[in-house]
Write a structure and sequence with these properties.
The complex is a heterodimer.
Chain A (H helix, E strand, L loop, with lengths): L6 H7 L14 H9 L1 H18 L1 H4 L31 H37 L1 H15 L3 H12 L3 H27 L3 H8 L4 H37 L19 H5 L4 H28 L7
Helix pairs in contact in A: 2-3, 3-5, 3-12, 5-6, 5-8, 5-10, 5-12, 6-8, 7-8, 8-10, 9-10, 10-12
Chain B lengths: L1 H29 L4 H9 L3 H10 L6 H13 L13 H36 L4 H15 L2 H15 L15 H35 L2 H8 L4 H38 L5 H10 L3 H29 L1 H5 L2
The chains are: A mainly alpha, B mainly alpha.
């Protein structure tokens, strides 16, 4: 930093422009994460391992998730069954892999849908302002007054849950909150000198929104997506637990903890341990990773 | 101030109108078959009987007309009746709302009592071992699914202590001790997630307040650090916390839907789950409306209390 100039003056003189990460196989943010944010980095590693295992479930699983074997019920962990077996003799490790695959897949889909829609709504509403913004925000108010978990249970009970309907409905339920956040950031960015400069050079609104506003709020979207993902995974698991998740015999981390399982869990407590541990670990990792990411990606924190 | 309250109350009316319309239309469209279809299919009766049934249950005419009729009834306190038990939804809710609300308020009290001291210590001893423990613990509390903790309690409670939740619900006003004994465990588990959220919030807020000039002044004039924390820091931290505490309540009451099932409690959430499987239209609609209105009212109360606490808000036009 130049001598004698406060950070604020610096910011005024050199407004933050979108930066591109330079070169190397490892992206810049990951290098900073590894060197400066050990906790956030460990969260990232956990996510890569669990996410990778979930994505590769068909390769890694030794047994089909629904294959029952009544000769080997309630087995403790062994070489053949690394996490043991359940009341139907199904391999718990394989079920956990497929369960994570389905739960994480639905959560990712829902969060991507929610963030893309929320970004479009938030940027347009925040950038144009005026009556469009006023009326739009009233609708968002109403949307926000729906109690998320309750309305999701109701809708899943009414339409019937499958991977597609869960992604769409959970995604829709997460739009209003995110769009509120994005809109509030855009309202601030709209007044920045670089937006004014672009406008004075005759840039069209669509160009300003896409090339000037979007890159400068991207860090907020990415950070909020990691935190939302943690929350959505918990919601998906709760729905599964209550019996409104993907239908059996598909394994789902929440459903694996409920229903007829409870009677058998007394005989085989490990059945109750693994799925809950996986959910906790993933949500924990998303949160510590998200926190670190927020610090790293915030343009004001660059070069500090 | 009166003008601010009046303004805020007026703004709630369109929200409530929109909300009821959204819920009514959404559920009317989404429920795959209505109960009349099922009833008619079972009895095999013709269109005259069907028409009579539809009229009896308010299922005739265009959607808009049905909505207006329903809204009129709701405003006068009639939420319709269950197709299956024939009982009035309003009556049923009157018995069940106290259970869910007691659970929610209990969980909220536990949350506030735990989160504020932990958050303050964490901020006061920033970057100490205690701080790292509190921060890590807060994220862990947030990440642990409550229903998993409840399942573990049930499984290991019965394995190790031969314990099971009571199957008969004790009313608070009939047997307060048995009632609290029954509810304290679900309250604790329900409170885990908000404790995680709130510890983080208290910590950030206290750190923010500690940086203020008036805290430095208080220290400089020789106040004991106990005095500084309780008279200056805690009070100023409470302003933003009121919002979060207020907004947690409807979330916690809605969260009881999971624990009422696990711990066999006759609350609103159980009512919804039981009726949902039978597509009991007015019950599903009424319970959804209850949770939604609770959210709107909490928002309203928080906004108005904010006006009382922070003069800048009520003076702004």
């Amino acid at each position: 930093m130049a001598v004698g100039k406060s950070a604020q003056e610096q910011a005024l003189l050199f407004p933050v422009a979108p930066q591109r990460h330079s070169g190397g196989v490892i992206p810049g943010w990951l290098r900073i994460l590894a060197s400066r944010k050990p906790l956030g980095f460990s969260g990232f590693v956990i996510l890569v391992i669990i996410g990778g295992a979930a994505a590769l479930a068909p390769v890694l699983a030794q047994y089909p998730y629904a294959e029952t074997d009544f000769g080997s019920r309630f087995l403790l962990p062994s070489r053949d069954h690394p996490l043991g077996t359940d009341n139907l003799g199904r391999d718990l490790f394989s079920r956990l892999l497929y369960g994570s695959r389905i739960s994480l897949g639905i959560s990712f889909g829902a969060v991507i849908l929610a963030k893309v829609a929320a970004t479009v709504i938030g940027i347009i509403s925040g950038y144009y302002g005026g009556w469009l913004d006023k009326i739009g925000q009233r609708f968002i108010d109403i949307w926000l007054s729906l109690p998320t978990l309750i309305i999701l249970i109701t809708l899943m009970g009414a339409i019937g849950a499958n991977v597609f309907s869960m992604i769409v409905v959970i995604g829709l339920a997460n739009i209003p909150g995110s769009s509120r956040l994005i809109r509030s950031v855009v309202v601030g960015v709209r007044e920045e000198p670089y937006v004014e400069a672009a406008r004075s050079m005759g840039a069209r609104n669509s160009r300003i929104m896409l090339l000037h506003v979007l890159p400068n709020i991207a860090h907020i979207i990415i950070y909020s997506a990691t935190v939302t993902l943690g929350g959505v995974i918990l919601i998906v698991a709760s729905l599964g637990f209550l019996g409104y998740g993907v239908p059996a015999p598909h394994p789902d981390l929440g459903a694996m903890l409920s229903g007829d399982g409870l009677t058998y869990m007394r005989r085989m407590p490990l059945m109750a341990v693994w799925p809950g541990l996986t959910i906790t670990l993933v949500v924990f990792a998303f949160n510590i990773f998200g926190d670190a990411l927020r610090d790293i990606l915030d343009p004001r924190m660059r070069g500090v | 101030m009166q003008r601010y309250i009046a303004q805020r109350l007026l703004l709630t009316i369109p929200t409530l109108l929109g909300l009821t319309a959204l819920l009514f239309v959404l559920l009317s469209v989404v429920l795959p078959v209505d109960v009349i279809d099922i009833a008619v299919a079972e009895s095999g009766s013709g269109s005259a009987a069907e028409q009579a049934l539809r009229e009896q249950y308010g299922f005739d005419g265009p959607l808009v007309v049905r909505y207006v009729k329903w809204l009129g009834a709701v405003v006068s306190g009639d939420l319709g009746e269950s197709f299956f038990t024939g009982r009035s939804v309003t009556e049923e809710l009157r018995g069940r709302v106290p259970v869910s609300v007691e659970l929610g308020i209990g969980a909220l009290i536990i949350t506030v009592l735990c989160a504020i001291p932990i958050g303050m210590v964490s901020a006061a001893k920033q970057d100490s071992a205690a701080d790292y423990l509190a921060r890590g613990g807060a994220i862990l509390f947030y990440a642990v699914p409550g229903f998993w903790v409840a399942t573990l309690v049930l499984v290991f409670g019965s394995l190790w202590f031969n314990w099971a939740p009571a199957t008969k619900y004790q009313q608070l006003w009939e047997d307060p001790r048995a009632n609290v004994a029954q509810l304290v465990l679900p309250m604790l588990i329900l409170g885990l997630q908000p404790i995680g959220t709130m510890v983080r919030l208290v910590r950030t807020q206290v750190l923010e307040v500690l940086r203020q000039d008036y805290v430095r002044t208080a220290r400089a004039k020789g106040l004991s650090s106990q005095n500084v924390y309780f008279r200056h820091v805690l009070r100023n931290t409470m302003i933003p916390l009121v919002t979060v505490i207020g907004l947690q309540l409807p979330r916690l009451v809605a969260g009881t839907v999971i624990f009422e099932t696990i711990f066999v409690l006759p609350g609103v959430g159980r009512y919804l789950l039981d009726s949902l499987q039978r597509l009991d239209f007015y019950v599903v609609l009424g319970t959804n409306l209850f949770f939604a209105v609770l959210l709107v009212v909490a928002n309203l109360v928080v906004d108005i209390s904010y006006g009382f606490i922070d003069p800048r808000i009520r003076l702004a036009k």
